[in-house]
Structure formats: structure tokens, C-alpha cells
Amino acid sequence: MEKAVQLWSFANFAVLTAVLSMLPSGYSAPPPQPAQCNGINFLWQHVYNPQRLEVKKSCVTVTGVIVGRKPEPDGDLHIRLKLDSQFEGMLNDGNKTNQGGNLVVEPICDHAVTQTDAVASCETFHSGIPRYPVGTRVVVTGSEVLDHQHGWMEIHPVVRITQTQ
User: pLDDT tens, 44-72?
Assistant: First the structure.
């Protein structure tokens, strides 16, 4: 039995060594994500023009009320979320000036892309995040980012939105 365990351990070590040798030089695995953000690394592969987004926290969860939403040409759904008071510290001057004091929340690849240079990002993916109407209280989970192009804070991409009381 002990010999079988040693052989099994050696075989697994050999496979792991072979896999690691195939990774590019300087490769470092992304940090592990909390369970509520499972799939976030996959979603980032479908974010249009990700260089414009500076990740502040890779995984956050907030609550608030949807006060506005509109489809964007890049396929994302632009949602304005009136945050509950404990999350208002996430807002910056861009949110206060240009978004009515609301956090921008963007489920990616929500609908058909009409912006030519953004088509490839959603070509093989549709998020399936539920669309809730304005006035719905929700819990939102995703990456907290600063959108340098617009100057406001966002949750982008969104991993999940669920309705709450």
C-alpha cells in the first residue's frame, strides 16, 4: 500500500512539473478569489478595453437601489446604483458630479454590441446577469474599479446581481 501511495504521489508530481514547465516565463497565477467572485477572471477576458479600468479591489459586494439603467453600444448594461449608506465611501467626485451620486455597475456582454471595435469582446459570450427594473433593491458583486476614461468608480465586470429586501 505504501509503495502504491509513493508511486501515485510521484506520478502527480511529474504531471504538475510538466504542466508548470509549459507556462510562459515570468507567469504568475492570478490571486485566488473569494467564493462569491468565482468566474471573475473569465469575465475579465470579455471586458472591452480593460486598460481603462484600474482594479481597486478584485471582489466586492455592495447593496443599494437601481435608479437608472441603459444599454451601452459596447454591449454592457450601464446601471446607476444608489448605494446603501455603508458603501457611500466608494464614490468619488466623478460619481457625484456625473452619475448623480450613484455607483456605476456594469454587467458585461448584456446585449448585442453595436460598437464596431467592441464586437470581439462579446463575440463568444453573453453574461446572463438578470435585468432588474429601476426601483429594485439589489446585492451586486464584482470588481471595484476606477474608470480612467470617465473618472468614476464602478463595479465592472459584475459577477452577480440578486434582488434583496
Answer: 999 999 999 999 999 999 999 999 999 99
Beta strand ranges found along 21-148 (DSSP E): 53-71, 77-83, 103-105, 137-147
The answer to the question of residue 50 being in a domain is yes
User: What secondary structure, in 3-state letters, does 52-87 show?
Assistant: HEEEEEEEEEEEEEEEEEEECCCCCEEEEEEECHHH
> Is 1 inside a domain boundary?
no
Question: pTM (2 decimals)?
Answer: 0.78
Residue 55 has phi, psi (to 5 degrees) of -75, 120
Residues 68 and 102 sit within 8 Å (Cβ to Cβ): yes
- Supply the DSSP symbol for 130: P
